[in-house]
Amino acid sequence: MGDSTATDERRVGVRKMYKLFINGAFVRSESARSTPLWDGKAFQANIAQASRKDLRDAVTAARTAQIRWWAQDPQLRGLTIYRLGEMLEARRSEFIDAIAASTERDAPSARNEVDIAIDRVLWYAGWCDKYSALLSSKNPVAGPHFNCSTPEPMGVVGILAPQAPLFLGAITALLPPLVAGNAVILLASERDPRPTVALAEAIALSDIPPGVVNVLTGFRSELAPAMAKHDGIEAIACTREDLSEWSEIERESAHSIKRIRAFPLHHAADYFSERAQSLDAIADFCEIKTIWHPTGF
């Protein structure tokens, strides 16, 4: 017993390296850059710093995966997202610890955030085979034609995760485009990306196909303009907390006519309410295809 205690005291713990999640694999940045994370008192971890080349790799993976993701039956997409909820539930204590360490919040507060996040995953999973019926329509038109409209995914969506809440904010931003059949490139909160990387680890263990969700860590000032410029990204979702960042994204997105979606939630507390989940959030990441067909005589 004494020998075991002495060994524990001499042992050096293994520090975790937080990597990028691209095409279903955890990789270091191609630039080999990393950023030390400090809590104001002590060193916490090394965070991989994604480059524009890493972003391009993520776009390539996402464009390939999005076709397969949208081709799946809606019921299967729902079951896949439900499986993500199962993985979050299985690792619930890990997420609680990660949130508590990142935000210096007490355990009950962190537990509440994780529970709401898991419930939100299951809530959106149930919409995968239902939203299309509610967003579709049969349109009255003059002449011998049948006219109907139906939603389709935009393609690849870039998301700048909210700075707070770290875990619930990332999940709330991720799910609507995923349900709509899009592939996602999620840039984690720059303040502390550890809860978002922990989310990526749960995604890797779920049945979500590689490349459908890609998670980058790094500086928004470097990656946000690159996202806006990239022609392979059809839409960007972010907050309006930084008006200069928002203006730059609008300006850089103009040449590719990229869609820009602003999160309607303005305060961290809003993410904990039911207003943070809605059919409208899914509709924001859909395009409407209208079909004309002759009805005959």
Automatic annotation (TrEMBL):
EC number: 1.2.1.3
Signal peptide (from-to): none
Keywords on record: Oxidoreductase
Molecular function as annotated in GO: aldehyde dehydrogenase (NAD+) activity
InterPro entries per the UniProt record, alphabetical: Ald_DH/histidinol_DH, Ald_DH_N, Aldehyde_DH_dom
Domain Aldehyde dehydrogenase residue range list: 45-239
Name of the protein in question: Putative ly membrane-anchored aldehyde dehydrogenase protein
Source species of the chain: mine drainage metagenome
